[in-house]
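retry 2 of 3: previous attempt timed out while embedding BIS(adenosine)-5'-tetraphosphate. Reduced batch size to 1 and resubmitted. Inputs unchanged:
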Amino acid sequence: MRIVLLGAPGSGKGTQTDAIIQRYGVVTVATGDLLRAEVAADTALGQRAKPFMEAGELVPFDIVLGMIENGLQALARTHPKGFMMDGFPRDLAQAEALDKLLAKINQPLDVVLFFEVRYEEIVKRLLGRGRADDNEETIHNRLRVYEEKTAPLIDYYTRKGLLRTIKGTGSIEEIGERIRAVLDEIA
Ligand code: B4P
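retry 2 succeeded.
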């Protein structure tokens, strides 16, 4: 199965990935985690990405796409059960690039799970988490960037018939149950 997790920062995508991996045997590709690892290791890529992440802006296209391209081609060979993208695509250019890449390796997407959560709830969650980019100013900028650049993907994937909306509030188990209901139908 090939899945995209779509939703605002803090909508709980990362929180649900372990349960999905265990049940469906897919592997996860989380651009946020990959970028944070590059920053922590102080690589040239991490040094370029860091100021964008600290400001809550999207990291430039070439950096993110390079990471995805390398990863996906290898994953298609090593993980026949499929993959789940968390945090990618983040805008239309990334979505179109992903479509092209997946068409090239003959691995089209099966479903896009859109996590629907109100912004007041998101701000509360992220302030509670307290990661380096979870201060109030950066959170508001991340939500503004999400609204402007990422939210148009809801229409993009609806038009392709791939979007399924998951109500992202309630307990982590309740949300997991809603996800299972959708994915069991597709699997
Ligand atoms: P990400 O790492 O992708 O975003 P995130 O804020 O961690 O969101 P997620 O939805 O995964 O939230 P989580 O489950 O952790 O991006 C960070 C930055 O990286 C971006 O701002 C950008 O700069 C850069 N970046 C990443 N991908 C990029 C791309 N493709 N292109 C360009 N730039 C990119 O949940 C958040 C909190 O909520 C946690 O504390 C969790 O415990 C809590 N929570 C989860 N579910 C809950 C529930 N049901 N109830 C209560 N709390 C809950």
